[in-house]
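Q: We require from you a single protein entry containing the residue sequence and its fold in token form, and nothing else.
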Amino acid sequence: MENLQTAEVAEVTEMESIEVAETIEVPQQERRLESLKQEKQELLKEVERLEQEKVQYENLRLQLQLEERGFGFAKEFVEKYGFAKTPVERIDALAELINEVKLDLGFKPKEVAKQDDYTAHQQKGDAKGMIASKFSKLFK
């Protein structure tokens, strides 16, 4: 009978030790799970940061290439109307850019100073005309 009681006590002790072991493993697993979640969040943030840096790098590279080829003025056009837009929008934007370039290359008259009689005679070296223009202003 003593052996039976000892076996029961051993069995109860074993069950308690299993329960204690299970309660110890659960918090460790939860901690591991939490640390894995934190690592995942950190990695996601890092990926997002790297994607932003990639976009910035591509923009700088594009700007450099445009400036090297003499198309620095088209940077805004390229950024605004990238390949994500519809063909109609791209064509309209291209037409707008071409019109701007045509305006820049078109004839731009220089501002000519208004020339009076005195200055005209002075440029010709006509002293009589210069004196006549001065006297004509006096007697008006």
In short: The chain has a mean pLDDT of 75.
